TrEMBL record:
SMART domains: S_TKc. The keyword Ribonucleoprotein does not apply. It holds the Pfam family LRR_1. GO terms for cellular component: plasma membrane. It is an enzyme of class 2 (transferase). Its EC number is 2.7.11.1. It comes from Sesamum radiatum. It is a single-pass membrane protein. Keywords: ATP-binding, Cell membrane, Glycoprotein, Kinase, Leucine-rich repeat, Membrane, Nucleotide-binding, Phosphoprotein, Receptor, Repeat, Serine/threonine-protein kinase, Signal, Transferase, Transmembrane, Transmembrane helix. GO terms for molecular function: ATP binding; protein serine/threonine kinase activity. This is non-specific serine/threonine protein kinase.
């Protein structure tokens, strides 16, 4: 059997093995058969000693329509990149880095409208960056480091609004850095090191407010360092070393409070090192060696940890003996003592002012939003290491709509790709909606300790004053609503029964298997997610309620979805476990009839519940989903099917009775469904 026979294959990960296939030999080439796999979305073959050239067939057949990720890093692939690769119309991420590819970057890549990540680093590619890449309106990551590329970078490249990370280091690019780069306020990482760029740094560099990394090391840049660089308040890493820069170190660099790495070595920079840099408490690396600096080396704050080699090659520097420089001359003991006093007192005054300001801002924020204190107290307890806002932007292509997999009133869910084998879902809360913050609070509180195979797993969170997100396990098969009501999806009877047993098991755990009693309050098909094995997971606990043994009924103003809401919940807001049982009953009916509770056929006179009740039990087969009926099945099989379906609809009617105390509990529901499954399998 070849891989091409796996027609429904969606993800294939062969990475980090010892595959030695020669792609140039027909008997070893395994990519062409994969063109038969119409559903293949992810293909990972990276870090294998594969050799040969990429076959032109990679852009043909069914593969061309559905493949989203092709990861073939470090596979010893030779030759050129076939232009047929541009036929992969759904391609989001292409990584061919670390191979032995030569020739140009195909201009046809400009037609890949869904393209978001392109990595061709560490090859032997030649020529220039094609202008056609400027057509990639969703591109946010490009890595062409360590090639033999040359010429000018297209001016239009910086106009790609989605672009966030640009790595073009160790090539032979020439001329000026495109002015459009300095005008793009959303670029986060820009690495142009070890090229042949000329010109000066413009004042417009201050526009790059989102910049985290700026590496221009090893070029031929001249002129001064503009003071506007101090406006890059998010900057973490700045390297301008080995250029021809002149003039002083701007005092404004002291504004870069996030700065950890600063390298200005091997230039012609003059003047003194600003004492204000002592306030950069996060600074871990500071190198100004081999310049023309004079004056005293700061010796407080981060400078306590810096060693002499960071300052060598500057004959005019003086300071503490540990820097291996001459001692500074003091004018008079009186003035020297004054300076020492001021240097001791001013930081204390500054710290007091900053501390007071933080307290005032915090108290104001707390008064506007009392839940802020309690928010962090429980999220930190159960979450893994927090993920940053910028990591989320990177993994979702800046929350690109192409990554959107769901949207609701209080937030949106995005597919996030951190690596080819690390794909998650990220729920971003819309904080413009009043209920969103409370919903985030509830989901964190509910999910912090519960563990069940049929509940959506929350991995970690991202939380600050103006951004809230939950990182969850990605469910590649979407939700139950899609499988029930999309024309191109189908679930057989056994699959539907398994899904409803999974949901019953999840709700049973919430009601009876956890230390606190949890009521979901919004059970519906779109909140039932399906993993790669079609196992169901209940999610979205945004309006869930935690009850205690002494408080089995509470009242709420947050009602669920119309059609799934129990009568007592909708009229009085009373919440008990019976609310979930009712919603489950409606879900049970919808799953096997494919009718929504708000279908146009229903009205005040004919509800979904009364429709089933009128057919039960004698005419029950009239309401079953017609797709489940097979005219060719035998009488015994049909009789068994009818018996099981009748039992399921009978259970659904019990779950949806008007009086909450007459509804069964979820333990009983789960047991009865499992018995029905056993009976169904006996035929």
């Amino acid at each position: 059997m070849t891989l091409g026979n796996l027609r429904e294959l969606q993800h294939l990960n062969l990475g980090l093995n010892w595959l030695t296939n020669d792609l140039s030999k027909p008997d070893q080439e395994f990519l062409t058969p994969l063109t038969n796999c119409k559903d293949l979305q992810v293909l990972v073959i990276g870090f294998n000693p594969i050799t040969g050239e990429l076959p032109k067939s990679i852009g043909s057949g069914n593969l061309s329509a559905g493949l989203q990720i092709l990861y073939a890093r470090s596979c010893r692939i030779k030759g050129t990149i076939p232009s047929e690769t541009s036929n992969l119309s759904s391609l989001i991420w292409l990584d061919l880095g670390g191979n032995e590819l030569r020739g140009p970057i195909p201009a046809a890549f400009g037609g890949l409208r869904s393209f978001q990540k392109l990595s061709l680093s560490q090859n032997q590619l030649q020529g220039s960056i094609p202008n056609s890449l400027c057509n990639l309106k969703s591109l946010y990551f490009v890595n062409l480091t360590k090639n033999k590329l040359s010429g000018k970078i297209p001016e239009c490249f910086g106009n790609i609004a989605s672009l966030r990370e640009i790595y073009l280091a160790e090539n032979a690019f020439t001329a000026n850095i495109p002015s459009t780069f300095w005008l793009n306020s959303d670029i986060q990482n820009l690495d142009l090191s070890k090229n042949l760029f000329e010109g000066s740094l413009p004042l417009q560099i201050g526009n790059m407010k989102s910049m985290l990394l700026l590496n221009l090391y090893g070029n031929q840049l001249s002129g001064g360092i503009p003071s506007s660089i101090g406006q890059l308040v998010n900057l973490v890493n700045l390297s301008l070393s080995e250029n021809k820069l002149q003039g002083p170190i701007p005092d404004s660099i002291a504004n870069l409070k996030s700065l950890k790495y600063l390298d200005l070595s091997c230039n012609n920079i003059s003047g003194s090192i600003p004492m204000s840099l002592e306030t950069l408490i996060l600074l871990e690396y500071f190198n100004v060696s081999f310049n023309k600096l004079t004056g005293e080396i700061p010796d407080r704050g981060p400078f306590i940890n810096f060693t002499p080699e960071f300052f060598k090659g500057n004959k005019g520097l003086c300071g503490a003996s540990r820097f291996n420089v001459k001692a500074c001359k003091r004018n008079t003991p009186k003035s020297s003592s004054k300076i020492r006093i001021l240097r001791g007192v001013l930081p204390a005054i500054f710290a007091t002012i900053v501390g007071t300001s933080i307290i005032i801002l915090f108290l104001r924020a707390r008064s506007r939003n009392p839940s802020l204190l309690s928010l962090s107290s429980f999220t930190v307890d159960f979450m893994h290491a927090r993920i940053s806002y910028y990591e989320i932007l990177r993994a979702t292509s800046n929350l690109n709509t192409g990554n959107l997999i769901g949207r609701g009133h209080i937030g949106s869910v995005y597919k996030a790709i951190f690596s080819p084998t690390s794909i998650v879902a990220i729920k971003v809360f819309n904080l413009d909606v009043q209920a969103a913050l409370k919903s985030f609070d509830i989901e964190c509180r509910v999910m912090r300790n519960i563990r069940h195979r049929n509940l959506v797993k929350i991995i970690t969170s991202c939380s600050n004053l103006d951004f809230k997100a939950l990182v969850m396990k990605y469910m590649p098969n979407g939700n139950l609503d899609k499988w029930l009501h999309s024309s191109n999806c189908f679930l057989n009877f056994g699959q539907r029964l398994d899904i409803m047993i999974d949901v019953a098991s999840a709700i049973e755990y919430l009601h009876h298997g956890y230390s606190s009693l949890i009521v979901h309050c919004d059970l519906k098909p779109s909140n039932v997610l399906l993993d790669e094995d079609m196992v169901a997971h209940v999610g979205d606990f945004g309006i869930a309620k935690l009850l205690t043994e002494d408080q089995l009924i509470v009242q709420t103003k947050n009602l669920g979805t119309i059609g799934y809401v129990a009568p007592e919940f909708g009229s009085t807001g009373l919440v008990s476990t019976a609310v979930d049982v009712y919603s489950y009953g409606i879900l049970l009916i919808e799953t096997f009839t494919r009718k929504k509770p708000m279908d146009e056929m229903f009205s005040a006179e004919l509800t979904m519940k009364s429709w089933v009740s009128e057919s039960y039990p004698n005419s029950i087969m009239q309401i079953v989903d017609a797709n489940l009926l097979d005219a060719n099945i035998g009488e015994d099989v049909r009789a068994n099917f009818q018996r099981c379906f009748t039992l399921i609809m009978g259970l659904a009617l019990e779950c949806t009775t008007d009086l909450p105390e007459e509804r069964p509990n979820m333990k009983d529901v789960a047991v009865r469904l499992k018995k029905i499954k056993i009976e169904q399998q006996e035929q």
